[in-house]
Request: fold
Amino acid sequence: MKVMQVLPALDSGGVERGTLEVAEYLVNQGHESLVVSAGGRLVDELCAAGSRHIELDLGIKSPWTFRHVFAVRRLLRKERPDILHLRSRMPAWVCWLAWRGLPEQDRPHLVTTVHGLYSVSGYSAIMCRGERVIAVSQTVKAYIQQNYPQTADERIRLIYRGIDANDFPADYQPSEAWREAWYDQYPQLKGQQVLTLPGRLTRLKGHGDFIDLIASLRLSGQPVHGLIVGGEDPKRRAYAQELRARVKELGLEDSIHFTGARSDIREIYAVSDIVFSLSTKPESFGRTVAEALSMKVAVVGYAHGGVGEILAAVFPQGRVELGDSETLQKRVLEQLKTPSVPGEMPFLRETMLEQTLACYSECLK
Reply:
């Protein structure tokens, strides 16, 4: 089969990574893969794995973007894909209008993926127009059913996002060279209990709750150090400054470290006693939670959204109700005193890829 995936760009992020994974899997299974986007740093990787990239900027949220409808329609006529897979709202609108303008016998089968819990609106409803609508978690499926009841249940396919267990193997140990460099940079962490909160510095990630937790644990005499691992959002620099000011105000400058964006997150998980997910807004999946649990590192997180689903399946001991600071501290102390080991990881990339291909094949049947 010939599959065309469409998204805004190929720079970074979960949607982009998932697109590349599906593209490579299609090629490895003997199918033809096309990706339409505005381009980005992942294009070379995409093409090296055997896909073709067609550059078209459909992601700008402006009426002017609809001028591309005719170009997309020409592209569909020329390429004649069997499957048109739409992964983002603005490109989905442009492609759907182009697709609808074709004679029915010339239209590819339409698949959409609802990757997030978008604001409920007519604009977002486009993501439920597919012949098959992929939900990336039970949370997303429930969101579709509740907010877009016109989407028939038989059109929805629950396909969890997945991680590659080979990238995050159980009981992984960093090299001696890495450890030496790490403790040269952060000598305060030697012999301490390390608590890690991964994620970009945005207000929804719960950094305030994490800082308060570290403050309470330090006050009770617990030898913990906090790591906030993630880059600053250029549009939210004031928030990053606010967090640093809060750390200083609480006298925690030697107890909480901001590492910035890091490419060695696997190694950081490995030297952490507990990894956290404290997002105040439900997430559609929770990749960092799955990654850490795959390595048998304990995760404590707010039990809502996709994170709640992953914890329920793999490490129920880490579930905490949103905003319950007392139980949060209790769970952490229990884990530090008597560590529990996470169960097997069911949310795997290979399963996600097999189910996505099965969804495409089902459309063609």
